[in-house]
Amino acid sequence: MQRVIVVGGGLAxxxxxxxxxxxxxxxxxxxxxxxxxxxxxxxPLSKAVLAGDSDDTTVDADWDALRCELLLGxxxxxxxxDAPGRGGAVASTAGDLPFDGLVIATGAAPxxxxxxxxxxxxxxxxxxxxxxxxxTPGARxxxxxxxxxxxxxxxxxxxxxxxxxVAEAADTPLANAVGPEAGALTAPWYAEAGxxxxxGVKATEVxxxxxxxxxxxxxxxxxxxxxxxxxxxxxxxxxSGLLLERGVVTDGSFRAxxxxxxxxxxxxxxxxxxxxxxxxxxxxxxxxxxxxxDTALNAPDVAAATLLGQDAVYDAAxxxxxxxxxxxxxxxxxxxxxxxxxxxxxxAGPKWAVAWLxxxxxxxxxxxxxxxxxxxxxxxxxxGTPVDAEAIADPDVPVKQVVRR
Length: 405
Description:
The chain has a six-stranded mixed β-sheet, with helices on one face. A five-stranded parallel β-sheet has the order 9-16-10-11-12. It is built from eleven helices and 27 strands. The protein is α/β, with parallel strands linked by helices.
């Protein structure tokens, strides 16, 4: 392999570059990024940057030592694949870029609402700086979506003295992320922070000066922030022959499929990683699309190994954290197929957790102010060791001690 192109300038892209070099790749290496900035971290955008505590989240990478050409402010527009194992070329605003190895790390773009009114999303450093300037005391801020991003924006806006309303289509916050039962436990936090939470409210359009609701209602606003999710950036891959279903469909080693999901159609010279990769999880027996920082940080090492012909499989349990309303909230695992939820501590207190179990297997955990629980639970989930369901419900018993010997 003599020439590798990495498309995408987010964390997954820069980590792929670093992993390729650390694993011995000595050929030409180019990173193509639609943003003009060098790669930067996104989680602080809704936390430190929005709060005004930071203005630069650039990833600390030695680009000279990495010997990587940076094409910043350039966008991939198409992909031509040659015969399997023979690479192809990325069409871009900088011209055609031939490769014999390709890393697809184009991430995801925020979903927006219809309407002619001004709406903000939070994905880039410019988004964060622009919104921060508008969070002034007394400003009416309406946030669509009570997910992770919505809660973090509400936290920052309330701290700055804004009049904040959060409109959520589901009946509870975080319903999509952790389910309605666990999500409902976070609802009191909004009122405590002086934020009006309106659940079961569907937004239809962003108008000038407000948000239109289904059924004819309206919420007046100086600024509307939309935080209803993201979609993988795949438009440039249409017609390429790659299998696209909610993301670039890959196996557990991040090799992309062409045509159909069959081992014979895997491309050893094309890998996808990060928010745009729909990868097969052997652990959960299903395809996952994980839009979290931890996956973007760690998965590229496996993708790089795969591209270089080395055996590697990614099978980590997903992990995510959020800082909202003065609380550190952490989640690990995948509860989608879990049988039951177990409370660990009093949700009315400052520190508690909930665990999802199937039989005596710990599938996932959500912790609030209990970082030790999270660390120990991640190890238990990774190992797949059975646990005592009664013991894990006792917050005074360390998670590592609920493992059945």
